[in-house]
Structures are given as structure tokens and as C-alpha cells.
Amino acid sequence: MTTQRYLATLLVWTAAVAFPAALPAQETIGPSEGYQAVAELLEGMIRHEMEDKKLPAASIVLVDGREIVWAAGFGLADRQRGTRATAETVYRVGSVSKLFTDIAVMQLVEQGKLDLDAPVTDYLPDFRPQDPFGKPITLRQLMCHRAGLVREPPVGSYFDPGEPSLAETVESLNRTALVYEPGTRTKYSNAGIAVVGYVLEQVQNEPFAAYVERAVLGPLGARASSFEATPDVAARLAKAVMWTYDGREFEAPAFGLGTAPAGNLYANVLDLGKLLAALVNEDGGLLKPETLGAMYTPQFADGESKSDFGLGFHVGELEGHRRVGHGGAVYGFATELAALPDARLGVAAVTSRDCANAVTRRIAEAALRLLLARRAGKPLEAPSVSDPIPPERIRQLVGRYASGDETVQLSESNGRLLIERGDFVANVRALGNGLTIDDPLVYGPAISLGTEGGLSIGDRSFSRLPNTRPEPPPADWLGLVGEYGWDHNTLYIVEHHGRLHALIEWFFNYPLKEAGRDVFEFPNHGMYHGERLVFTRDAAGQATQVEAAGIVFARRPTEAAGKTFKIAPVRPVEELRGEALAAQPPQETGDFEEADLVEPAKLDPSIRLDIRYATTNNFMGAVFYDEPKSLLQRPAAEALVRVHRRLASQGYGLLIHDAYRPWYVTRMFWEATPPGMKHFVADPAKGSRHNRGAAVDLTLYELASGAAVEMPSGYDEFSPRAYPRYPGGTSLARWHRELLREAMESEGFSVYEFEWWHFDYRDWQRYPILNIRF
Questions:
Q1: Which terminus of the chain is more solvent-facing, meaning fewer CB atoms within 10 Å of its CB: N or C?
Q2: Count of CB atoms within 10 A of residue 243's CB?
Q3: What confidence category does residue 301 fall into, taking pLDDT thresholds of 50, 70 and 90?
């Protein structure tokens, strides 16, 4: 059959079937008759997950046979404009893109134009990565991630905002070496699918994006979808959110990936529904039934395996049914596309929050279970959702635990219980009478309290460990610890309990194995297994870059230890001082306590002072106080003394940098600080808790030496290193930070979300804004 006749046949099929490709675009479809209860239960789950996981937008489509039985959107596609999400909202669907690329390949296989088992060099003669194994790479191996290629190419990687061509991306792989012998081990590779897409481009003598649109998207009627960010796509694209462990959120970058065939598709759920309908119907017209069957068959697996990669599709099981599909994660977006081909059911769920794949996967699987139950005439059960854990129970669980050589850390942050286990930090929530890990990144297993203060995670028992002070890391590692790469994707090299870790792609925290000075290996699991990190140092021993998995990450500038952070005030300090002294604080109404400011250091003289604003050793390099005093409202001061005495049993005391601050100084800080840094200073229109005498800036000092301890950042540093959950640095610095926080919180203080050193007393709102000069 000629290409023209083949495409014409697909178009006739698309127009003939009762399927949304033939319908005008709709913001919502259905629910069809008989599916209302399914949609209602899923909507309840989606709305709960959106609130709990801070998902800006989410959309879903359900397919039964040839029909889209429900498609809808929730939340806001653009929060600034108030644009609501619908079934028509376009998302970046990440690695779901691979399915469209692989389907295009299989169409050419059916036509005899491509051979899955021929050396890929038959189609790309110049494709020559270093091959120590002497075994040719094939399309079959590339499509099921068994080619042994690196995960990312040196040019056009996931981190690369340069938007190189597909040809440049694939050419850069000639500077890499195979990680594994082809065919021997699964290694997920975006680079590999870029090669597959480039084969299409070369064999068809047509740009990849244009060819797939002509061969796959067009016949499907996927009119809203494209591998390129066309004006129409951009106009309907949801605004996506990035987030970090330390609490930051920012708009996702929008650059196109050099590995476009692997992850650059833009689509809405209506178009994904059209793909699902073609996948679950044997006469779907997209591919022959036997071709789809081959794609749904695990490749290079033993006969017993039912879960592995087929040709493009990940193959598994759900409630005894064959399950095929793929997930997708790309800057700010998370997708799950899943089908039960034998039951002719399918679902796609997408959201606009980075890496929230545990959520889209749970929604998709809940949908398939409900569809199966409906078809079997069984009662429909609401998908389970979790609840917050009461504060008193969180306090019981906080600590470090061990089971054999595995350790986990449970900690509290802003009223949530966090677990550090394996490669992730995740939320723990209540589920029924127990607990479970329930986070955008990961779901499960269950957690329960054990005997003698221990706990169980899944089927494994953990014992509580004492909260001992970590040892300092080897001095040679200190030149490697730091931040590398880009604002949009920062790599952290972190010391964690005697090992270096690479925290990569914001969330994946991999322990490293030292293979030589300045050479480390990724662990034998995760995204980068089999690959290395190689550091380059300057003459002083400080790393200037790290080549991690073949990608060069330049060291990011950060303040040196012990150096005071400085800004360039936007206006002269003395000019601001005159204006601030002449101004008046905001007028407040209410029944306030009478001020009773006392000096904590007079209540306990072993509390030490380093009042930075009485010197020029501060972020503005100017003197603001006439005397180096620290003042607090009496209840706060007395609570602080109790904290200080509690810490003494562990060999530490409190070192105060600032406490009560006259309002006029707050105004000076605000007016002097550049706009992008104002979240580090208080708005004088509202007054600060320092102005009320109910906030304190402080750190720890060692009683034995009198020296201030190591912390992840310096005092008043205007950077993410100041955040209370900044993940970088050394174990010892983070332990000091947590020791201070836990001690302060035990006496009614709470840490400010942007500064580990700033603590507000619980009754701060009872006191008025003050403008009394020292």
C-alpha cells in the first residue's frame, strides 16, 4: 500500500467512526450516560489531590471502546489571568511523546521501509558513539531502552535551553560511549528515542515534527497537538509550575527539548483520548492488530516477565488485565496515559505541576478500576484519599530510624510530616487508621508505629536512632559540595552522613560511589545508573564544574563560608534614614498588650550577642543601631532563655544577631532592597514581627570553643541557601539548623519560611508595632 493510500484509509476511518475526532472542540465531554457516577467519584479525588498537592490545573479523559465517555479540566490553566482549565487545555506531555514517535516507526515497519533489527547505522551512517562491545544498535533496542546509550545527549539534553536541532543533538552522541552492551540491560534513554526520531527524519526526508504530524497526528484527528510550540499551541498551553524541596515555586521554562521525539509533544486530553481509542480497538486503523500486539509485548525479557518495556509502551498488569501506557514528566508538567487493551478501556491524566507523576498515575489507575467495576456491575467505591496528621502525632514520629543498612529521617515542616527515604523527600499523611507516603513524587507504602519507639514501612521494621551530631565530611570533599548548573535546573552536590550525594533534576537524591579523586559513580538504580560524575578543580581545590552523566554543569556562585552577604542599596542609606525617621508607622486598631521589652542576655548572661545592625557587618554595610542591644517582649525573652538552657545539655548556646527592630529601620531595609529580593525583608506598610518585639534572629555557638557553628548559609544571605529546608551543604550544617529549629519550636517559636535564623514568637500579634529608637 502506498503512503498516500495508507493515509487516506486512516482519514476515512477517522471520519467514519463515532469518535470525538469528528466532533467540534469542546471544553467538556460527557459524562456519557451510565458514567456519571464514575466521573463524580474521580472529580472528588482530583479536586482533593489538587488542593493537597497544589496542582494549578488538571485535565482527564476516559475512553471506553471507541468513545470518549468523559473529558474535563479543573483548576486554572493561567492563574494570573484566571483562565480555567478544560478538556481543551494544552499541556506538555513529556515522554508520552515517545509513543507517537514509535508508532510512526511501526507504520514504516509495516510498509517495509524500516527493519527493527537492522543496524541503525543502515539509516544513520554517521551515528558512531564509542562502542567497546562491538555489537550493532538496532531500532528495536532503542525503542525499548536496551541500546545501552547514555540517558541524555551532551547537546540538547533535558537541561539544555539552547534548542539545538535534532541533527545536532544526535551528532553529539558521537562524543559518548555506550554504558551497557546493547540488548543486555534496560537503561531508559531520551537520547535513544531522539535517534529513533532522527531515523524517521532521514528516511522520510522530512523534518521530524512535520512527518509525525502528517503520519500520526493528522490521521488521528489530533488537531490541537504538535511537537512544536506553534502560536495556536502557545495560546492554549497551561502555565506550569516548578517547585523545590526548600519551598520555592517558579514558572516552568518553556524551551523546546533537543530530544524532541522523546519528550516535546504538546497535546490536550481530547487528542490523547483519540490515541487511546485507536490503541484499544483492533480495527483502529492506526496500526495492524499484530503490530500493536508486538508493541505491547515486553522485549528482551524472559518468558515469565509481564512488566517491562515493549516497543515504546511500558507493559504491566492492573487487576489481572494487561496494562500498557507511558508516563511523562517535563518542566512543570506530569502525565499518565494508560490503557487496558483487552478490556478496551483507556485514561489520560495531566497536570501542570512539575513531576507530580505519583498523582496522575493514581488518578489514572483509580479511573481504570472504576471503569472495570462499572462494566462488571460491581459497586463503585470512592478512591482513597489521605488526610493531614495531627501535630501531636507528628511530634511522636520525628526522628531518625534504621533497618539494616537503610536509614530514614522523619521531620516536621510547616505542619507536615516529611520522610527522607531512598532517592526522595516526601510527605507522610494519615490514611484510615494508619499512615502512608502520599506526595506528588511518590505514593506508598504504608507506615505504622512499631514497638519501643520504632516503626514499620511496608513490610520492613525500623528502630529509632539517637539524634547524634554528624561527623564533618572529609576536607577534600568540601571543594566539591555546592550548586552547579542552571536556575531552571540546579544540580546540588551534597554531603549526607558520610557520603556525597547528587541531588539532580530537583528531586532525585542519589548516593555516589567514589571511584577516584574527583570521580564518582551514580548508584546502580535510578535515571543515571552506569554513568559518572567528574569534577574539575581550580588551584585552590574548589570545583569549577562537574560533568555529570556527560552533561557539563558549571559551578554556581555562592557566598563563601563566613563572608557577609551584601546588596547594593537602590538608594543612598542616609537619604533613606532621613525619610524613615520622618515617616510614621501604619495605624493599627485592636486591644494590644503593653510593651515590656527586656534583654534576654541580662536574664541569662551566657546568651551571646553579635548585633550586626549596630555595626557595618550586615547586608547593607551601614550602622542602624546606636547600641548593640537585643530586646524582646518579656514572654518571648523568657522562652528564649529556656531554649538556651535546654541546648546547653548538648554543648550549644544561643548567639543573637537581632531582635526588636524599630519600625523606621524596617522601612529603610524595604526601600533599599531590590525588587527581586524583597521577600527577605518585611513590608513597612504591614510592619514586621521584629517591630513588635516578638521576633529574633539567631544562631548557635559551641559552649566549649565559643565559636559560631556551621550553618548552610550565612546570616542575612538573600539566597535559597537561607531557606529552612534548603537541601544542600553538609550533614553537620543541616543538623545544626534542625537542632536550632526544634529547640525554638519547643518553646513556641516558629521559623520564617525564607530564613533559617528568623523565629517569630507565637503571641506576636498581641503586641503593637513600635518605633522606639535604641
A1: N
A2: 20
A3: confident
- C-alpha 423/C-alpha 429 separation (Å) is 19
CA–centroid distance for 771 within its chain: 43
* Residue found by looking up cell 510512526 in the block: 104
Cα separation of 480 and 493, whole Å?
7
The 3-state secondary structure of 57-119, one letter per residue: EEEEEEEECCEEEEEEEEEEEECCCCEECCCCCEEECHHHHHHHHHHHHHHHHHCCCCCCCCE
Taking residues 624-634, what's their average pLDDT?
A: 96
Average pLDDT in the chain: 94
d(C-alpha 623, C-alpha 659), whole Å: 16
Of 400, 300, 314, nearest to 361 (Cα)?
Answer: 314
Question: Which of 466-474's residues contact partners 24+ apart within 8 Å by CB, and which partners?
Answer: 467/399, 467/400, 469/732, 469/735, 470/497, 470/498, 470/730, 470/731, 470/732, 470/735, 471/498, 471/732, 472/730, 472/732, 473/498, 473/500, 473/730, 473/731, 473/732
DSSP characters for 492-548? EEEEETTEEEEEETTTEEEE-EEEETTEEE--SSSTTTT-EEEEEE-TTS-EEEEEE
Torsional class of 482: left (φ above 0), alpha (ψ -120 to 50), beta (otherwise): left
Give the whole-angstrom CA distance, residue 477 versus residue 516.
Answer: 12
Who wins on pLDDT, 4 or 238? 238
Residue 423, CA distances (Å) to 200, 358, 511, 563 in order: 36, 14, 8, 32
CB 199 within 8 A of CB 174: no
Report the C-alpha gap between 437 and 758 in whole angstroms. Answer: 30
C-alpha span between 503 and 484 (Å, rounded): 10
Assess contact for 545 and 554: CB atoms under 8 A: yes
Crossing angle (nearest 10°) for helices 731-745 and 634-648: 130
Find all residues with CB under 8 Å of 205, minimum gap 6, and list them.
none
Distance CA 663, CA 329 (A): 47
Q: Contact, 543 vs 479, CB < 8 A?
A: yes
pLDDT at 563 over 90: no
Q: How confident is the model at residue 23 (pLDDT cuts 50, 70, 90)?
A: very low
Q: In angstroms, what CA-CA distances link 42 with 271, 354, 360, 720, 763? A: 20, 21, 12, 37, 42
- Cell 471544553, residue? 27
CA distance 335 to 348: 7
Cβ atoms of residues 287 and 311 within 8 Å:
no
